[in-house]
Design a protein that fits this description.
heterodimer; A: alpha/beta; six-stranded mixed β-sheet; three-stranded antiparallel β-sheet; 9 strands; globular; B: mainly alpha; 10 helices
Chain lengths: 269, 248
């Protein structure tokens, strides 16, 4: 683990939940300033991998280096190195957009004056400055996502994790989102690590791709390299030829169940 | 310190923004004050125990603090559901700070709720023995609030979703309240009940509030204060430990 160009290094990473192996001995590197797409069908182990990279889960085995830090033993240094947009929304609905960002800034110890100017800059960047004092519960899905992007960048991270950032958004918003992200990568040289189910997005945006299935990485390389290797025209076809056409079922977690519950309850009122 | 403050502030803001919650959670204490306070008043007086309102008010204040603080602790489940918990857990701050900030926020809200009930009870005919009673009253309100917020946090750290909530309501919160001596005097109750009451932490909170607000006490001021302080300390540690073990 000594290549200076690798901002993320993962070696023989494994995560077992009692008898089930979610992530099975995977290794990969991400270069500084790269845009890296992490693809795979439902239940492939992508989110579990991201959770281990971002200190939310302890690996069963293996090594991770994140910006030179070990997420297990150097938690705070590792945490300051990355920003993240989670798969599910993670804003406080009862706070305003600005308050959500301030909360983040305080947790990451961004100094007061700097914080205000950055909040303004970022909220203008994601085009939410006009709505800064509105409660987040009045925001649409796309606006929430944009706000989460702004929040994840507030402490100037070196790495930006995005777990299915465009899920459930309309094509316009999706396009916008990738523009922001590519822009950011170009201007600030932030390394971007994302997962998505829209393979054509990965093909357009990503410089390197890893495909995961059943807890293992089945292929990695450039989008063109993978197309060549499988002899397919598009990355989507390459993806399907690598992972098969069978439909995957993901078991609903307790949280999913509760979401449904709450949705029902809300309708009932 | 700033972490603790911002987490505290968040709880306060959320509380004051949900006015329906403030009003809603006052319904029950008012109902108890009116129905029980005035309903049992004549019988209580005839039994030679004096004013039932005087006796009941410390119990009702303790009740509203108990409910509000356990709910504040359990709110972690909602935070987990809405994903906000993840945002705090990936931040470069210790879990202890998060837990302390949340607990103080929840406790502040609970104390505030108790203060409102106190003012309402003045309209129901409650008479304070003097201004000096306010300081020990506040101390006991604080202890009850912190103790049960920490308990709520400890429970919520172990729960995946709200499915178990009904269970907690019926087998923890309700017994804690009804078996605390909030509604009836403990002198001369059957031994079995007296023993159960001794194992209920809220009993010491109610008794402490009663000794501060009315001047009568079953266990004695010092016993109340000591047991509550020790329990609060213990539950804070337990809550912090369980909270630090949360995996998302």
């Amino acid at each position: 683990m000594d290549n200076n160009n690798h901002i993320i290094e993962v070696k023989n990473l494994t995560k077992r939940f009692s008898s089930f192996t979610a992530v099975d001995d995977i290794s990969f590197n991400v270069e500084k300033g790269d845009i890296f797409a992490f693809l795979g069908p439902n239940g492939a182990g992508k989110t579990t991998t991201i959770k281990m990279l971002t200190t939310l889960l302890f690996p069963t085995e293996g090594k991770i280096s994140l910006n030179g830090y070990n997420p297990m033993s150097q938690k705070d240094e590792a945490r300051r190195s990355f920003g993240i947009v989670f798969q599910d929304p993670s804003l406080d609905d009862e706070l305003t957009a600005r308050e959500n960002l301030e909360f983040h800034g305080v947790l990451y110890k961004v100094p007061g004056r700097l914080m205000n100017s950055r909040i303004e800059e970022l909220m203008k960047f994601v085009e939410l400055w006009e709505r800064r004092d509105h409660l987040v519960k009045t925001f649409s899905g796309g606006m929430k996502r944009r706000l989460e992007i702004a929040r994840g960048l507030l402490h100037h991270p070196k790495i930006f994790f995005l777990d299915e950032p465009t899920q459930g958004l309309d094509p316009q918003t999706r396009n916008h989102m990738w523009e922001y992200i590519e822009n950011l990568n170009k201007k600030e040289h932030i390394t971007v690590f994302f997962t998505t189910h829209y393979i054509e997005e990965a093909e357009k945006v990503a410089r390197r791709v890893a495909i995961m299935d059943h807890g293992k990485i089945v292929a990695q390389g450039t989008p063109d390299g993978l197309k060549e290797k499988t002899g397919k025209q598009t990355l989507e076809d390459a993806f399907l030829s690598l992972t098969g056409h069978g439909i995957r079922d993901e078991e609903a977690s307790g949280v999913d169940r509760m979401r449904q519950h709450r949705a029902m309850w809300r309708r009932g009122r | 310190m700033s972490t603790v403050y911002i987490l505290w502030l968040r709880q306060i803001k959320r509380y004051f923004r949900s006015r329906s919650r403030i009003v809603g959670s006052l319904g029950q204490p008012i109902l108890f004050l009116v129905a029980l306070g005035f309903g049992f008043g004549p019988v209580f007086r005839r039994a030679g125990q004096g004013s039932y309102i005087q006796f009941l008010v410390p119990g009702i204040i303790a009740m509203s603090i108990l409910f509000t603080s356990i709910f504040s602790g359990i709110e972690i489940i909602w935070d987990r559901q809405f994903g906000f918990l993840k945002e705090t857990l990936v931040a470069p701050v210790s879990r202890l700070e998060i837990m302390v900030g949340r607990t103080l926020g929840g406790a502040t809200v609970a104390i505030f709720q108790g203060v409102i009930v106190f003012f309402i009870s003045l309209f129901a005919g409650f008479r304070l023995p003097g201004v000096h009673a306010l300081i020990p009253t506040f101390v006991f309100m604080l202890l009850i609030a912190v103790l049960f917020t920490a308990l709520g946090t400890a429970i919520a750290s172990k729960l995946e979703d709200m499915q178990g909530f009904q269970l907690i309501m019926n087998f923890l919160i309700m017994p804690l309240f009804f078996l605390s001596g909030a509604l009836f005097p403990l002198d001369g109750v059957p031994t079995v009940l007296a023993t159960i009451v001794r194992f209920d932490p809220l009993s010491y909170g109610v008794d402490g509030l009663r000794s501060a607000l009315v001047g009568t006490s079953h266990f004695g001021f010092t016993v109340d204060l000591t047991i509550l302080s020790v329990l609060t300390f213990f539950l804070l540690i337990l809550g912090s430990y369980l909270f630090s073990k949360i995996e998302i």
